[in-house]
Design goal:
The complex is a heterodimer of chains A (360) and B (375). Chain A has 360 residues and is an alpha/beta fold. Chain A has a domain of 248 residues: NAD(P)-binding Rossmann-like Domain (Rossmann fold), CATH 3.40.50.720. Chain A contains eleven helices and 14 strands. Chain B folds into two domains: 118 residues, NAD(P)-binding Rossmann-like Domain (Rossmann fold, 3-Layer(aba) Sandwich), CATH 3.40.50; 207 residues, Dihydrodipicolinate Reductase, domain 2, CATH 3.30.360. Helices cover 43% and strands 20% of the residues of chain B. In chain B, the strands form two sheets. Chain B has a seven-stranded mixed β-sheet with strand order 8-9-10-7-11-12-13. In chain B, strands 3-2-1-4-5-6 form a six-stranded parallel β-sheet, with helices on both faces. In chain B, helix 5 links the parallel strand 5 and strand 6. In chain B, helix 1 crosses helix 12 and helix 4 runs parallel beside helix 5. Classes of the chains: A alpha/beta (360), B alpha/beta (375). The interface between A and B is medium-sized, with 24 and 28 residues.
C-alpha cells in the first residue's frame, strides 16, 4: 500500500511549504482532506469555509496538528469575487470541494456549484503560482442510458448531455460545473483534474445511499438488488483527492473513486440491518422499479408537473441499473490504493450509525 | 400570443416559468439576470428565446409585453419602473416593493401609461382561497368580517435558505428594512388587507428574536411577530408570524356577524363555522359530525382537482398569472386591486417602523446604562 508519507515530496508538483487551498474545508470530506494533508507533511494550508460553517473544530485540528506550519482558516463566500481573490492569493494547489450539496432547487444548486466555481477559477488563473485545480465532482454526472446492462462504468463513459431532463438539481449543477472547469482548461489553460467519487461513506455521513433503496411513508423499498454499490470510504476518497492535486502529468484527466471489493446492494442492506437497526424492506425487482419510474415519468409529463419528475427512466438508469465500477485508472495513474478495506470501512460506518441512532 | 420575460433567475423564477408554460398563448421571449450564467442555466431548462444580463437590452431586443420581476426585493422598484417606462405590463413578486411610497409610484406610473401591474400574492388564489372569497362575496359572513386571524409561520432550520441567511452577515435578506419578515409576511398580511375597509388602520406590533435564534448567536433577525390591526373601530385582525410554534400554520380565520370560515392553506381545506348554535346536546354530537362531513367534502374537492390535473403546488400562481394576463388582453380588472397592494405595503411599513424604533430604543437604553465598575 502506498501512502503519501511514503512518497517522496519531489514526486509531487507542490512541496510541503507551497500554499494549498481547500474550499468546503469544514465539510464531511473537506475536514478529512485538511487532516490528511497535515498528516502528510504539508505545512501551508488555507482552509476556506462559509461564514455559517462551524470552523471551531477545524481551527482546533489545525492548531493541534501543525506545529511550525501555517494553517489559515478563512471564512467567506465564493459568490464574492473579492473573497475568491483573497482565498486564491499565492496558492499552488486548489482542492475545490465546496458545492451546493443537498440543494433541491436547480438555481440554488447551480449558483452554489457553478457560479462559485467560475469565480474561484477566474481568481485562480490570475495567480501565477497555480499548479493544479482539483474539481471534486460526482458519479452522478454519468449517463447510464445507452450502456448495456452490466457494462463497466469508468472514466470513458459519457456524461449526461441533458441533465435538465429528469436528473436532479445536484446532478445538473455537477454536470455544468464539470463543463465549465473543462472549458477553462481548454480556453484559459487552467491546469485541472476532475475527481468523481462514488458514494462517500463513513462517520459523518451515516445515511444509506439511494442506490440501495428509498424510504417512503414508513416503508423501505429495496431497489438495488444484486447491483454492485460504488462505495468509497471517506479516508480512501480524500487520499485519492489529495493525490489528484499533487501527482505530475495528469492535467485534464478525470478520476473515478471507488474502493476495492464493493458489496452488492443486497449484502449492504443485510449488513446494515444486522449491525445498525432492523426494519422491514420490500424488494422491487428491476423490471418493476423500471416500470414504476416510466409510469411516474409519463404521468409527470402528461400532468405538466402536477407530480414532479422525481422518478424517471434517466434516474433509474443512473441509480439502479446494474453496472460494474473500476478504480484501475486511479491506481495506475495516481498510485492510489485504499487505506481502509471495505470490511473495515463498513464496520466503522455501522458503528457511527449506531452511535448516531440514524435510521435507514 | 402574449410575449413574456422574466427578470431574475433564482428559485421563484422556476415556479413562474413552469406555470407560464401551462398557459395557452404565452411565450417566454427572454430572461435576464445580472449573472449571465444564471440566465443561461434557466434557458437550458425552459424554452426561452434569449438570455440577457442587461435589462435595457432585454426590453429593447426581446420587446416583451409583460415582465415578471423575480429578483431580490431591493431591486423590484427599479426594475419594475424601467419596465413600465418601456411600455411593459409588470408582475412583481412579493414583497411588491420595500416601501409603500415606491408602490405608489409604480401604480401611478402604470395608470398613467395605461399599463397593468400586480403583486405576487399567489397564495390568495389557491383553490380553497378562491372558494373562501366566493363565500364571503356571497354574504356568508353577514355584513363582512368582524375579526380576522392570519397565521403565516416559517420553519427556520440551520440549513437551507434560513441557514444561509443566519450564517451570512452580508446576505441580502439582512439588508431589507424588515429583514426576514419582509421577505415572507406579505402573503399573510395581504389576506387581512383584502377585507379592511378603511385606508389607515391602526397597527400595533410586537416582535422579537426567538430564544432558539438567540442561542445560535443571532440578534438581528426577528422571527417572532404578533400584530394587531384595527380598522376604524370596525374590523380587527391579528397577524402571527412564528418560526417556533408547531404546527407551522398557514391559516386564515375570518369571523363575520353571522358565520365564520377557516382556511388552511397547507391542507387546502375550507371549513365553515356556522354562527347559529344547535340546541343542548345536539351541539356536542351533530356539530362534530357536520364538521367531519366538511373535511370529507374538502378531500373530495382536492381529489377531483387532482384527477382533473388542476392541483399543482403552485396552482394559485397559475391562476393569478392567467387572471393578470386576461386583464391585459381583455381589459378586465386586475386580479389584485391596487388599493389592496398599497394597504399591504402600508401595514408592512408600519410594522417595520415600529420594530425599528423599538430596536433603536433598546440600543439607546443599553448605551445609556452606566457601566458597573469591576472590583
Amino acid at each position: 500500500m502506498q501512502t503519501m508519507k511514503e512518497t517522496p515530496a519531489d514526486d509531487f508538483i507542490a512541496g510541503p511549504d507551497d500554499l494549498i487551498l481547500v474550499t468546503g474545508a469544514t465539510g464531511f470530506m473537506g475536514s478529512r482532506l485538511v487532516a490528511h494533508l497535515l498528516d502528510s507533511g504539508f505545512r501551508n494550508l488555507r482552509c476556506f469555509a462559509r461564514p455559517s460553517s462551524a470552523v471551531g473544530r477545524l481551527e482546533a485540528l489545525c492548531n493541534s496538528a501543525t506545529g511550525a506550519g501555517r494553517v489559515q482558516v478563512l471564512t467567506g463566500n465564493l459568490l464574492s469575487r473579492d473573497d475568491c481573490m483573497t482565498a486564491t492569493a499565492g496558492v499552488a494547489v486548489i482542492y475545490h470541494l465546496a458545492a451546493g450539496r443537498g440543494e433541491k432547487s436547480f438555481p440554488d444548486a447551480f449558483l452554489n456549484s457553478v457560479v462559485t466555481t467560475r469565480n474561484l477559477m477566474d481568481a485562480a488563473i490570475s495567480q501565477q503560482s497555480l499548479k493544479r485545480f482539483v474539481n471534486v465532482s460526482s458519479f452522478s454526472v454519468y449517463s447510464n442510458m445507452n450502456k448495456p446492462k452490466g457494462r463497466l462504468l469508468d472514466e470513458t463513459c459519457p456524461v449526461e448531455r441533458n441533465p435538465e431532463k429528469g436528473r436532479d438539481a445536484y446532478c445538473f449543477a455537477k454536470v455544468k460545473q464539470d463543463e465549465i472547469v473543462s472549458d477553462y482548461g481548454q480556453r484559459c489553460g487552467l491546469p485541472y483534474v476532475i475527481v468523481r467519487p462514488g458514494y462517500v461513506y463513513g462517520p459523518g455521513n451515516e445515511g444509506m445511499t439511494f442506490r440501495v433503496g428509498i424510504g417512503t411513508f414508513g416503508l423501505y423499498l429495496h431497489l438495488g438488488g444484486s447491483n454492485e454499490i460504488p462505495l468509497t470510504y471517506v479516508d480512501n476518497c480524500v487520499g485519492a483527492i489529495a493525490l489528484a492535486g499533487l501527482k505530475p502529468g495528469v492535467d485534464g484527466e478525470v478520476f473515478n473513486v471507488v474502493d476495492d471489493n464493493l458489496p452488492s446492494s443486497r449484502s449492504l442492506l443485510r449488513q446494515y440491518k444486522k449491525n445498525v437497526r432492523k426494519f422491514t424492506s420490500i424488494y422491487l425487482p428491476h423490471a418493476v422499479s423500471y416500470l414504476l419510474c416510466y409510469g411516474w415519468e409519463r404521468y409527470s409529463e402528461w400532468s405538466q408537473g402536477q407530480l414532479p419528475p422525481a422518478f424517471n427512466r434517466r434516474e433509474w438508469h443512473a441509480s439502479w441499473k446494474k453496472s460494474r465500477y473500476s478504480n484501475h485508472k486511479l491506481k495506475t495513474r495516481l498510485g492510489w490504493s485504499p487505506k481502509v478495506s471495505t470490511v473495515e470501512g463498513l464496520r466503522r460506518h455501522f458503528e457511527a450509525c449506531r452511535n448516531r441512532g440514524q435510521n435507514a | 400570443m402574449l410575449k413574456a420575460a422574466i427578470v431574475g433567475c433564482g428559485k421563484i423564477a422556476d415556479s413562474h416559468a413552469s406555470q407560464m408554460l401551462r398557459i395557452k398563448g404565452c411565450e417566454i421571449v427572454g430572461v435576464c439576470d445580472r449573472e449571465l450564467l444564471m440566465a443561461r442555466q434557466f434557458a437550458d431548462r425552459f424554452p426561452v428565446n434569449r438570455c440577457f444580463s442587461d435589462l435595457t437590452e432585454l426590453l429593447d431586443e426581446a420587446r416583451p409585453d409583460v415582465v415578471h420581476v423575480t429578483s431580490p426585493p431591493q431591486s423590484h422598484f427599479g426594475i419594475a419602473k424601467l419596465c413600465l417606462e418601456a411600455g411593459c405590463h409588470v408582475y412583481v413578486e412579493k414583497p411588491f416593493t420595500l416601501y409603500e411610497k415606491e408602490a405608489e409610484v409604480l401604480i401611478s406610473l402604470a395608470d398613467r401609461k395605461g399599463l397593468k401591474i400586480t403583486a405576487g400574492h399567489d397564495d390568495q388564489f389557491r383553490h380553497a382561497a378562491r372558494r373562501m372569497r366566493s363565500l364571503i362575496q356571497s354574504g356568508y359572513l353577514g355584513d363582512g368580517p368582524v375579526h380576522m386571524e392570519s397565521y403565516y409561520c416559517y420553519e427556520i432550520g440551520s440549513s437551507g435558505y434560513a441557514g444561509a441567511i443566519l450564517g451570512d452577515p452580508q446576505h441580502w435578506v439582512r439588508k431589507l428594512p424588515g429583514k426576514l419578515l419582509q421577505n415572507i409576511i406579505s402573503h399573510g398580511i395581504a389576506r387581512i388587507a383584502e377585507y379592511l375597509v378603511g385606508e389607515s388602520p391602526q397597527v400595533i406590533t410586537c416582535g422579537f428574536v426567538s430564544p432558539l435564534l438567540k442561542s445560535w448567536g443571532e440578534s438581528e433577525i426577528i422571527d417572532e411577530l404578533r400584530v394587531i390591526i384595527c380598522d376604524e373601530e370596525r374590523t380587527t385582525g391579528y397577524f402571527t408570524f412564528s418560526s417556533q410554534m408547531r404546527p407551522e400554520l398557514h391559516q386564515f380565520r375570518v369571523y363575520g356577524s353571522n358565520n365564520g370560515l377557516i382556511l388552511d392553506q397547507d391542507d387546502e381545506t375550507l371549513i365553515k363555522l356556522p354562527g347559529a348554535r344547535l340546541p343542548s346536546y345536539a351541539e356536542k354530537f351533530v356539530s362534530p359530525v357536520a364538521t367531519a362531513g366538511q373535511y370529507l367534502s374538502n378531500v373530495t374537492n382536492n381529489l377531483r382537482s387532482f384527477l382533473l390535473n388542476d392541483f399543482h403546488m403552485k396552482s394559485g400562481m397559475k391562476y393569478l398569472i392567467e387572471s393578470f394576463y386576461r386583464s391585459i388582453v381583455e381589459g378586465t380588472p386586475v386580479p389584485i386591486p391596487y388599493r389592496e397592494i398599497l394597504l399591504t405595503a402600508r401595514i408592512m411599513d408600519s410594522i417595520f417602523a415600529q420594530l425599528g424604533a423599538r430596536e433603536s430604543q433598546a440600543k439607546q437604553y443599553q448605551s445609556a446604562q452606566p457601566s458597573v465598575p469591576q472590583l
